[in-house]
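## retry 2 of 3
previous attempt timed out at serialization; input unchanged, resubmitting
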Amino acid sequence: MPTTDGDGPERADGPRPADGARPGPDGRSGPDSGNVRGAPLGPDGLPRRSSRRAVLAALGVGAVGAGLGWAGYEQLKRLWWQVPGIDKPRRPGELDYAAAGWAGASESNWRRADRPADFPVDRVVIHVTQGSYDVALQVFRDPGHGAATHYVVRAADGHVAQTVRELDVAYHAGNREWNERSVGIEHEGFVDRPETLTDVMYRSSAKLTADICRRYGIPVDREHIVGHNEVPGATHTDPGPHWDWRRYLRLVREAHAAAERKPSARPARDS
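## retry succeeded, writing output
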């Protein structure tokens, strides 16, 4: 299961953005559903959206002017999406992986971001639930739990539930930097019961991981697809000694190659 060690709401991440920075019903951020008073209007009658490049340039000048230097700029860069008119439009229940179903986690168990614009995504972290699929979704919906992965894969049929958008930072790895740079996948099962790690779950998860790797340009290898136990500072042991890494990486590579051969394959996501 994911852990909040080293990350979590109002802890290592600092305070969450004010409610005014959250999206309105139309998916735009800020009060009045993203309409900024005095902002120039575009041809559609809506406020023009500032470019990320312009905002980052302004942040860089501001950081240097304030004597914050490069470290200050890096910190400010991660807040660029909070500027009114910058945040990407979002729709409730929107999926990053087309084969998944939506089962949203509590907002207390993840942090709003705009990856990979503010944090490059270059890792996939593999978890095992130590419990049932239904219990995993239940605890992710619990605001007191303090943790969630982006996806949960069911053992019986390989069904994938997305609980956190890939844009956002899920509290799953027990390490703030790794939370920011990774997508977490939970698998229904137990680390000491190899029979719970089913073939259909391996195959379904491999297709999901291959899709993530294609979209972000992540190499399909053991440096970039890792277990929860391999995250620096990790205290958890999942996916455990019975997780078949050789088999899993083979399935991911096969799914990745098959997707590359499809004429309609989606291009990699811009970073």
